[in-house]
Amino acid sequence: MRERGLRTLLLVIAVLLTAEGLLAQPPAQSLARPTTPPPPPLPRTILPAPRPVMELIAELSASSFARRQRATRELYRVGATAAVPLGRAARGDNLEVAARAVGVLARMYTARDLEVVAASEDVLEGLSESGPRRVARRARKVLTSHVELRQRRAVEQVQQLGGIFKDTRDNVIDPNSPSLLGHPIDTLQLGKGWKGGDSGLKFVRRLPRLRSLLIIEGATASDKALTELIATTPLLNVVRRGRALLGVKPFSSSCRIQEVRPGLAAHRAGIKVGDVILTFNGKMIADFQQLVDLIKEHRPGDKVPLTVQREIDGQKKTLALSVKLDSWEAASAIRPPVKKN
Questions:
Q1: How many helices (H) and strands (E) would you count in the chain?
Q2: Which residue, 43, 248, 294, 299, is most buried by CB atoms nearer than 10 A?
Q3: Tens digits of per-residue pLDDT, 48-63?
Q4: Which residues span the domain enclosing 78?
Q5: Going by DSSP bridges, is the β-strand pair 326-327/257-260 parallel, antiparallel, or unpaired?
Q6: Which helix (H) or strand (E) holds 310?
Q7: Tell me: the pLDDT tens digits for 319-332?
């Protein structure tokens, strides 16, 4: 009995000590080899939400330099929605506010966010054209100091809207390719695939190296918008053509053929370099422009008779041919033959 009571007493004491944590078994991990504690988290800079744009613009004229600097930084963080208010601020009488506004727009213009870039570019263009003299000069400097960047982005926008770039031989090209970047762009073709309308022509104005703009009948661009484009880019040669295509180039204003595009209507009809086109659909041809005007009266797929004068064995002979006209879109789909080394 005494032994049983002693065992009971010891059991009770063990339970009480365990409850106090004195006899608790150490966790299994404490018996293992100590592990290296995890590294502390990297510090993060948590930026407060930007204040309203108009409040920030008002701060650009604050008496405290620190407040003006803080407002300038916050305006850049606002993004695209700050561009137009900044443009208005740049036209104000306060020179420091105007300078800071243009400075923010200039920084936005080199941002990675294309929406921010587009918004700032529109405002900078407006300031360069009609802003106060000092502001306009500064805006023009920003735009001209990024010519390559400006062209690359404009080319991308034009291509997305359905514009087609071509070289001197009417081959489709990408002006942003490494071999062509920075070189003059011979032709931009806008046809029925053009989705930019009048508003998309602003990207054409951003291509200072573009030589010729080819407008195909059916392109969604109004005469008014094209007239304004010509006025703002006087060195740009704007050419209009109908939907049908013959596929030749003349030596001069006469209709002596200098080049015949392989695979197109003229080539299939048997027209050759050196031929002189005499008639088209029964009408006498005096010069190349008259031929262009007659082609405008037709549609792709039309079969038209024509006559050419060709020198054969030293004698000039007249040949009657028939041509099935192509479309400009079909011509753009033809790739130039690969040259063999």
A1: 14, 12
A2: 248
A3: 667 899 999 999 999 9
A4: 53-145
A5: unpaired
A6: strand 303-312
A7: 999 999 999 887 87
